[in-house]
Amino acid sequence: MVRFSTTTYGREYPDSARNLRGIAMKFNTDEGNYDILCVNFPVFFVLDPTQGLDNFSDAEGMRMCGEDPDYAKNDLWQHLDNGETCEFKYQIQMTSEGEIHKVADFYPCDATKIWPEERYTYLEFGRVSFHQIRVNCPFRTHQYHPLARNGRLRCDANGGVESNIYPNSFTQPPRARLDLTCNEKPQSLQGYLARKSHSHHENEFSPDTEYVQAR
Q: Is the pTM of this model over 0.85?
């Protein structure tokens, strides 16, 4: 299941305006659901197409908000309608738990920091290719059964007397079983647990070193 979406606004928001955008993918595997999130936030996950970047300037983006608010949707639709494909290459950066504590110039677990490519090379783990215009076929997602109700053109029992929240004491999703063997992996901690600054190295380096990536 693949979903193109924004983050802070609805479908009516112009495509060319500044906003978080990306792709969310869900894979159903033998070990459970595997979710991958790709967002174009500068200090978060980066989403670049294989063919490269072709961005608007700030002035062009503002103008396109009025000329064609659905520019990105129309561009992808026309691209696929012409028989072309749209491909994204997925890469990750990895390190070991022991190596994290050896980094001296920044804290790798700080979400506002970007790992240097020369130290942590990108490892490709797959590609996703879109070659046809999406279709809303219910049979392709027939396993999807939420506890939601209402919506447009409902012609069934609309959930009947089932509870509208989960978990509840009355009904459970189909084939749902409680697995008591799934426990969170223990994590090793060093030092004292205390309420301090957001950054591990706060005030230990110059402001340019600490905040240059976020700027």
A: no
